[in-house]
Amino acid sequence: MNLLLSSNQHNLHQHITITGSKSESNRALLLQALYPNITIENLSNSDDSQVMKKGLQVYNGEVDIHHAGTAMRFLTAFFATQAERNVVLTGSQRMTERPIKILVDALRQLGAEIEYVKNEGYPPLKIKGKKITNNKVSLAANVSSQYISALLLVAPTLENGLELTLEGKITSVPYIKMTLALLTEIGVKSDFSGNVITVSPQKEVVDKTLIVESDWSSASYFYGISALCNVGSEISLSSYKATSLQGDSVLKELYEQFGVETIFNKTIVTLKKVREVSKDEVINFDLANAPDIAQTIAVTCFGLGLECELSGLHTLKIKETDRLEALKTELSKLGANISVTDKELFLQPSEEIKENVAIDTYNDHRMAMAFAPLALKVPIRINDAEVVSKSYPDFWKDMEALHFKVSEV
């Protein structure tokens, strides 16, 4: 499905309800599988969470997680520690190109039995679940935090808990802290001191309801829209917390530089455009702790004609696509002067945005949604637009609620 987007509405006053965080939901689902007396409210309706939920219910046989990277990492750790369960964990073509050796090596250090079905270091994986008694493991700290969270989530069910040593500079710390906060919420003791994380063993937990906060990554696209709107525009979103476990909640501070103020009223957050941004402004953000919002921010800067330098983006190379190269290709089509390294993005100010350009999405939900706000500036086409269902199935419907014209082409 290819869509043409356009909008002549620059004074927005709308409310949008966003589903639960995919990151929190997938962690909560794994904890619920380990401790069945946990209940979950406001679960994400994303494809990734549906795949995760379905995968957890397989006892023997093949588990296909399609494009869901989080599910691949979390389920690898889950099945490796589930005695009597034998599975082959596989996914899409792109998933078989995404490295998982670091996590597999760590689980093998603990005594797990995991084999590569095809290529060394990559899915599919043949996993024979077993009781794990070893409790000490080390892991490079500058890799995807999902490897680290995968180990931490299963840690309380290991006979002797876990002592995880992180080697080097730790990235994506908020996601690690999110995992530890959820463990604390269900009564599991843990400690994060220096580069060592310890999790105590816990056979059972008391009845607990985990309420998932709505997704801040999904909110980022409305921050992008707000930044490109006129002063006075307001978009309200629910349901959010002023103190969030999600690293992407840093949007509140970052988008102040784009003239967007964030106002909380209980669980409603309002994004208000309060000032125009000077063309002389240079945006310089280190996004090591929130890499998933890099695409949104780069497109916002391009739409406002601003120079930007984004760093801390090394994990974007192994996402649904190589997001840095994808951004370079697609923004260049629109007329951007952009360059990237393996961990940085540099964008020069642009006066003109080309119209009716077709943006390729590379099986990446964030490419589709990050570019959508540009329809406030010029008509824009989004190819394979249905890819948004990975994290935000209602996105195009919500864009129409904001008076964007969305038509199939």
From TrEMBL:
Compartments, record wording: Cytoplasm
Entry-linked Gene3D superfamilies: Enolpyruvate transferase domain (3.65.10.10)
Transmembrane segments: none
Residues given in the record as 3-phosphoshikimate binding sites: K22, S23, R27, S144, S145, Q146, S172, D292, K319
PROSITE patterns, per the entry: EPSP_SYNTHASE_2 (PS00885)
Enolpyruvate transferase domain span: 63-399
Keywords: Amino-acid biosynthesis, Aromatic amino acid biosynthesis, Cytoplasm, Transferase
Annotated metabolic or biological route of this protein: Metabolic intermediate biosynthesis; chorismate biosynthesis; chorismate from D-erythrose 4-phosphate and phosphoenolpyruvate: step 6/7
Binding site for phosphoenolpyruvate: K22, G69, R98, Q146, R323, R366, K390
GO molecular function: 3-phosphoshikimate 1-carboxyvinyltransferase activity
Keyword Repressor included in the entry's annotation: no
EC number(s) reported in the record: 2.5.1.19
HAMAP family documented for this protein: EPSP_synth (MF_00210)
SUBUNIT field: Monomer.
Purpose: Catalyzes the transfer of the enolpyruvyl moiety of phosphoenolpyruvate (PEP) to the 5-hydroxyl of shikimate-3-phosphate (S3P) to produce enolpyruvyl shikimate-3-phosphate and inorganic phosphate.
PANTHER family tied to this protein: AROM/DEHYDROQUINATE SYNTHASE, PENTAFUNCTIONAL AROM POLYPEPTIDE
Name of the featured protein: 3-phosphoshikimate 1-carboxyvinyltransferase
Taxonomic lineage: Bacteria, Pseudomonadati, Bacteroidota, Flavobacteriia, Flavobacteriales
